[in-house]
Amino acid sequence: MTTAPPSTRVRIAAGCRALIEAPLFSLAVLAVILLNAVLLGAETYHGFAADHTGQLRWAERGCLVFFTLEMLLRLAAHADRPGKFWRDRWNIFDLVVVASAFVPLVRENATVLRLLRLVRVLRTARFLPQLRILFLAVSRSLPGTVSFLFVGAVILYVYAMIGWVCFGSSDPAHFGSLGRAMLTLFLLMTLEGLQDAVYTGLAISRLSILYYGSYVLLASFVLVNVLIGVVLNSLDEARELDARTEATGRVPRVGEPEAEAAAVRVEATAHTQDLTERIAGMRQALDTLEQSLGATPSAPHDQGRMTTTA
């Protein structure tokens, strides 16, 4: 029975896939992305940009042609399975960024076009695994960060109202209104100007040290440590999701329910327990077999040989 030769589309997809998965291709794409960032920064120097307008324009067009060819190769690499291309969020992101440069309204707007060129720099995360994990960790820490911001805003509002009541008349430059008090406390959150604020408060009342001390402890130490804990926890989850992606080929979604990850961990634990029980059963069976072999009498032909010898 002969095997049918692969179709032309399958052969083209296999060849393009081998090309885009080559390390040299990834390095070339990364180099062009960094070159695009350098060109974008060079345009901020007006004298240099005015003297080299033609060269910068041709270099930008060359980068765009390279990115377009890259996207065509990625599309061709998924010709035999196009659904997989659209399931990868990085492919969609790259396609939108590159295709936007050919949209008439966007292409004619210099500001929007520069912003799109700036977004291309984010594509470096596709080729740097650690940077990709950091981006994923930041996206997964957003819910916890929103809660942190809400708690911080409540603390800032409460202390601003207390500061306005206690120091509004004595220090109107910093606590004359709710807005000024919140701005002063927001700057104090970074410990900027804390010494001057404490001395000014002590000149008004000795009890002000309790006000500033409790605020610094809550805002600058407790809340910041909570935020660091949220980010580190999200970083661990991002590493776990990236490992699952490498193992299963499934791209984790931003905001993916934690119940799914918990279910995977429970399933892995159950599989480990089942494997442990099987190993214990096999050991018990081997022990039983050894005991039965030790208690088995000699074979009949050995007994006959012993009788003849006697």
UniProtKB/TrEMBL annotation:
Q: Where in the cell is it found?
A: Membrane
InterPro entries reported for this sequence: Ion_trans_dom (IPR005821), VGCC_Ca_Na (IPR043203), Volt_channel_dom_sf (IPR027359)
Note the topology in the membrane. Multi-pass membrane protein
Q: Does the record's keyword annotation contain Transcription regulation?
A: no
Q: Which residues cross the membrane?
A: 18-38, 146-169, 181-204, 210-232
PANTHER family documented for this protein: SODIUM CHANNEL PROTEIN 60E, VOLTAGE-GATED CATION CHANNEL CALCIUM AND SODIUM
Q: Taking the first listed entry, what is the main subcellular location of this protein, grouped into a coarse class?
A: membrane
Residues covered by the Ion transport domain: 23-240
Q: Which domain of life is it from?
A: Bacteria
Protein name listed in UniProt? Ion transport domain-containing protein
This entry carries the following GO cellular component terms, namely: voltage-gated sodium channel complex
